[in-house]
Write a structure and sequence with these properties.
about 325 residues, alpha+beta, Ribosomal Protein S5, domain 2, Alpha-Beta Plaits, 7-stranded mixed β-sheet, 4-stranded antiparallel β-sheet, 9 helices, about 40% helix, globular, binds (3R)-3-hydroxy-3-methyl-5-(phosphonooxy)pentanoic acid
Length: about 325
């Protein structure tokens, strides 16, 4: 029986602009994890059987990868293809405490955990880059044209300064900082918001390009603050980034309400995180303001608030 796990993630700066080649910063949330356990125990000849709390699937040994529409089966098929073995008769049990469809990278974390557990069980463990590339292929099922930031930060489980198509650049967090991650309660598909931004860009590139450039400058400035320990300065960058995301039309009344409530309760900064129009927002707080801000955003409609230290002990 072999188990492997992978963390959730949040994007701190640069979502959407990262699709157009601008830098973005994302960090793993190691306290929330997806775990996959592989057992050589499966009804004979049935191939891979996967079991999860809200999901039970069996898929056969021979699957045409080009027609596979399930992320789980695609992950296992790509693993077997990559290491050149037929699909074994196994059971994969998935156990995850990462909320799904909320911008925390649940899909990429489950795929990463499966790929790690399965390659290890088959005697061919892959390095983080190979796992990341494999999960990127699976991410296309969810996102259409993903930038690659989710699979990278999750497979490496390191804070990253990510530029599409460039080698991974990990960043050192000189001084840990406290984030709240709050769910707006409204689901939204990243594929849809990415498509909407693409339409805006195609109709009016002269207006949209400066917004994307400004987001890229914010991510670069944020890296400077993070790596030199000037974390309090990140707050105003978060607000600027949120304003630019509003201009890209990917915020929502719910997300704006949460940002406002957080700032009124004493947060240092706040912004939406991920695809937008719903999903999560993040708030920079101090140890002293954390509880009050968390209460305020719950009262303003957040359906779940997760508290985490970035670069230090996680809570
Ligand atoms: O919704 P999430 O957390 O998976 O983030 C998507 C980030 C985007 O920049 C909007 C898209 C991408 O592929 O980078």
């Amino acid at each position: 029986m072999i188990s492997a796990s992978a963390p959730a993630k949040v994007i701190l700066f640069g979502e959407h602009a990262v699709v157009y080649g601008q830098p973005a910063i994302a960090v793993p949330v190691s306290s929330l994890r997806a775990t996959a356990t592989v057992e050589y125990r499966s009804p004979d000849g049935l191939g891979v059987r996967s079991v999860a709390a809200d999901l039970a699937q069996t898929f056969p040994t021979q699957v045409d990868v080009s027609t596979v529409d399930s992320a789980l089966s695609l992950t296992t098929q790509l693993v077997c293809q990559k290491i050149g073995v037929p699909t074994p008769d196994i059971t994969i049990t998935i156990d995850s405490d990462i909320p799904i469809a909320s911008g925390l990278g649940s899909g990429a974390a489950v795929s990463t955990a499966i790929a790690r557990a399965l390659t290890t069980a088959l005697g061919h463990p892959l390095d983080s880059e190979a796992i990341s590339q494999l999960v990127y292929e699976v991410e296309k099922l969810h996102h259409g044209t993903p930038s690659g930031i989710d699979n990278t930060v999750i497979a490496y489980e390191q804070p990253v300064y990510f530029v599409r198509g460039h080698p991974i650049e990990s960043i050192t967090i000189a001084k840990p900082f406290h984030l709240l991650i709050a769910d707006s309660g409204r689901g939204a598909l990243t594929r849809v918001t990415v498509g909407e931004v693409r339409k805006l860009y195609e109709v009016n590139p002269d207006q949209i390009q400066p917004i994307l450039d400004a987001i890229g400058r914010i991510a670069t400035q944020a890296r400077e603050f993070i790596t030199t320990g000037m974390t309090d300065m990140l707050g105003s960058l978060m607000l600027d980034n949120h304003g630019l995301l509003q201009q890209l039309t990917v915020s929502s009344p719910e997300l704006d309400t949460l940002v406002k409530a957080a700032m009124e309760a004493g947060a240092l900064g706040a912004k939406l995180s991920g695809g937008g129009r719903g999903g999560n927002m993040i708030v920079l707080v101090t140890e002293q303001s954390s509880d009050e801000v968390a209460d305020a955003i719950r009262r303003a409609g957040a359906v779940r608030v997760i508290s985490t230290m970035v670069g230090g002990r996680e809570c």
